[in-house]
């Protein structure tokens, strides 16, 4: 073309969670049934939305024509007031901005930053954050280490050193509960991270989409509870817990905009950016207070969390018996992560693939792949189980993520045992 029309950060936009679907669809078309463990969509995995929640949405649709219209740019006033009251009025309704899902929020949070400012995030990273931040900067995403040998807790010395020696870092990203590891940040760890942000005059971004999906006796500490006077924001949404991912209803809560004029101006730029779009979806905003305040909602959440806790225990029990991998039992979110021990993966390993057409297809793809992605492709071809390689989460640790969403406990355990057996065969094939 006459001009190069490609965005300078386009090569940084990757999303392995969905990219692997194209490979799995081809494998499926060649005759292998697929067990989809790649994406955290409870509805796709068979979770039923309670009738009483459907009735709330139905009544709004049938009785309230305003649900079909625009909402104010920031979101419905009454919904934002409801959220502010749930935070003990630590911020006002004016400090809340609705988006069309957190994907929209994440994109705007990074694209509206000064291009010379970086936000450091966890490794492994959730790829929507890492890709958006990297694309914004047209450079690889900056990360601090989560340690699988220390319950996936962040290495605070690593975080501090990277901030100290990289003055371009202006913010810290925290994903709590974490995706992909299922780790829930201890309160004291969060306080220490806030203190680092205060020391270096940074802001904090906390993705708390899984804030109410915590189990196994673990306590969730939300950012608003410990942020003090440090500027920051928390990202929330309906996608995972209701579950209603198709609502595309997320919001950001801003804290301490009155403490820093530069941060306040940045927040205003997000509002102005949203104004150009007019507003976010109205219907789920109307439903949100009715669903979350319903007396049946706490028991509904508790039942779901108990199921996730059982799945987390099964994952840990099965994977703990596999030589060559580490699996920390998750306590939040919808996922578990398995990490291969150092030096366990090579570019010569494989497992038998019974379907010759699938075998030919996969063996054309695996040359030059990251070692964990190579394993994931062989697992997919041999068993039909679709997981996500940890390298797809901007991580130098080889491994994979599996969801805790399978509603059939027997099938869930069988799938895990199949993965465990495949790991054993794959690692043993080195000597062949």
Structure, explained:
The mean pLDDT is 92. This protein is α/β, with parallel strands linked by helices. It has an 8-stranded mixed β-sheet with strand order 2-9-8-7-6-3-4-5, with helices on both faces. A 4-stranded antiparallel β-sheet has the order 10-11-14-13. It has a two-stranded parallel ribbon with strand order 1-12. It has 2 domains: 10-47 and 298-431, Aspartate Aminotransferase, domain 1 (Alpha-Beta Complex), CATH 3.90.1150; 51-292, Aspartate Aminotransferase, domain 2. β6 (169-175), α7 and β7 (203-207) form a beta-alpha-beta unit. It contains 14 helices and 14 strands.
Number of helices: 14
Might you state the CATH topology name of the largest domain? Aspartate Aminotransferase, domain 2
Distance between the termini: 51 Å
| Percent of sequence in beta strands | 5-15%
General shape? globular
Strand order of the largest sheet: 2-9-8-7-6-3-4-5
Total count of domains: 2
Instruction: Report on the biggest sheet.
Output: 8 strands, mixed
Question: What is the gyration radius calculated from CA atoms?
Answer: 22 Å
Mean pLDDT, all residues: 92
Do you know the CATH architecture of the largest domain?
3-Layer(aba) Sandwich
The H-and-E topology, N to C, reads as HEHHEHEHEEHEHEHEEHHHEEHHEEEH
Global structural class: alpha/beta
CATH 4th-level superfamily of the largest domain:
Type I PLP-dependent aspartate aminotransferase-like (Major domain)
Class of the largest domain in CATH? Alpha Beta
Give the helix proportion (percent range): 40-55%
Question: What are the low-pLDDT stretches, counting only 5+ consecutive residues below 50?
Answer: none
**Number of extended strands:** 14
């Amino acid at each position: 073309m006459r001009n190069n029309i490609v965005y300078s950060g386009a090569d940084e936009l990757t999303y392995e969670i969905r990219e692997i679907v194209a490979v799995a669809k081809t494998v499926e078309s060649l005759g292998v049934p697929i067990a989809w463990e790649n994406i955290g969509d409870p509805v796709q995995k068979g979770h039923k939305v309670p009738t009483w929640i459907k009735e709330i949405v139905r009544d709004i649709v049938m009785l309230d024509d305003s649900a079909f219209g625009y909402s104010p740019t920031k979101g419905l006033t009454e919904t934002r007031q409801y959220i502010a009251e749930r935070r003990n009025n630590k911020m006002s309704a004016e400090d809340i901005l609705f988006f069309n899902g957190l994907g929209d929020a994440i994109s705007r949070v990074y694209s509206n930053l000064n291009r010379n400012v970086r936000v450091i995030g966890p490794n492994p990273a959730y790829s929507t954050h890492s890709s958006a931040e990297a694309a914004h900067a047209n450079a690889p995403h900056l990360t601090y280490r989560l340690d699988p040998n220390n319950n996936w807790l962040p290495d605070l010395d690593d975080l501090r050193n990277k901030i100290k020696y990289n003055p371009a870092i202006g913010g810290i990203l925290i994903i709590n509960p974490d995706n992909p590891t299922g780790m829930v940040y201890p309160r004291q760890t969060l306080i220490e991270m806030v203190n680092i942000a205060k020391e270096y005059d940074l802001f904090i971004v906390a993705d708390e989409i899984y804030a109410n999906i915590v189990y196994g006796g673990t306590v969730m500490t939300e950012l608003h509870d410990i942020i003090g006077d440090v500027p920051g924001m928390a990202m929330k949404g309906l996608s995972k817990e209701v579950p209603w991912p198709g609502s595309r209803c997320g919001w950001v809560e801003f804290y301490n905009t009155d403490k820093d004029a530069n941060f306040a101006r940045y927040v205003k730029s997000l509002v102005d950016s949203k104004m150009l779009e007019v507003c976010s979806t109205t219907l789920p905003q109307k439903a949100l207070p009715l669903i979350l305040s319903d007396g049946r909602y706490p028991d509904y959440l508790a039942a779901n969390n108990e199921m996730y806790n059982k799945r987390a225990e099964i994952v840990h029990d099965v994977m703990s018996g596999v030589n060559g991998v580490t699996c920390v039992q998750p306590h939040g979110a919808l996922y578990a992560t398995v990490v291969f021990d150092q030096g366990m993966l090579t570019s010569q390993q494989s497992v038998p693939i019974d379907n010759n057409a699938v075998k030919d297809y996969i063996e054309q793809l695996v040359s030059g792949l990251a070692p964990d992605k190579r394993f994931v492709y062989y697992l997919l071809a041999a068993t039909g189980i679709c997981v996500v390689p940890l390298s797809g989460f901007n991580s130098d640790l080889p491994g994979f993520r599996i969801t805790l969403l399978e509603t059939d406990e027997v099938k869930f355990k069988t799938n895990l045992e199949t993965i465990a057996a495949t790991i054993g065969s794959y690692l043993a094939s080195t000597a062949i």
